[in-house]
Amino acid sequence: MSQARTATFDGIRTPHLSLRELMPHDTTALHRVLGDEVAMAAYEHGFSPAETADWIEGQVRRYRDRGFGLWALTDAETGEVIGDCGLTIQRVGAAEVVEVGYHLLRERWGHGYATEAASACVDWGFAHLDAPAIYAIVRDTNLASMNVAIRLGMTVRERFIKRYRDIDMPHLAFAITREGWRSRHPSP
Ligand SMILES: CC(C)(COP(=O)(O)OP(=O)(O)OC[C@H]1O[C@@H](n2cnc3c(N)ncnc32)[C@H](O)[C@@H]1OP(=O)(O)O)[C@@H](O)C(=O)NCCC(=O)NCCS
Questions:
Q1: CA-nearest residue, atom 48 of ligand 1
Q2: Who has the most CB within 10 Å: 91, 128, 155, 187?
Q3: What is the pLDDT averaged over residues 39-58?
């Protein structure tokens, strides 16, 4: 894919949060998020510990292959892992796109943390990748996630079906263009 050249990630800091690469030793902490069947309702199941470990392994492969992936989302003050957030390459129809993804510990919902983290990741993406737009791909039942995409300034571009665990799941592809992002975040 030409629009996402390999990049180097050396962490992101926001007012409340810090992002760093996930490591195998984060499995137990991240499993509090990915193993929570309420948080994972859009996936129709909470992950098993082995699936969480595989998820982290997948991100480590992405860091190696492209320089980015979903990162560990931590409380900037305490270092506690409270989720993941970052950028991956996903398919929307025939196109490969850069997507921002986020999963947050349930007890941390409702404070603006997902939007704060995702916004910093979109900033990073436009600064380090050639992508003309950044997407958020959301199951059509996942209202909280759609609201994050909307808070980022994204609009709906496409509706498509994703087949996951033998279930056809309608998804919406939200996106914001590089120009759209720049107009919302003019450089000083
Ligand atoms: C999707 C998800 C990350 C959204 O988390 P969230 O906490 O609702 O999202 P935000 O961080 O943007 O927080 C916004 C909420 O915080 C509130 N808030 C409180 N203080 C705030 C502040 N300083 N700034 C912004 N929002 C604030 C907002 O009013 C909003 O609440 P509302 O939706 O009740 O109006 C979370 O529901 C989640 O982890 N879900 C499970 C995983 C998942 O589905 N991921 C997406 C897959 S596509």
A1: 138
A2: 128
A3: 97
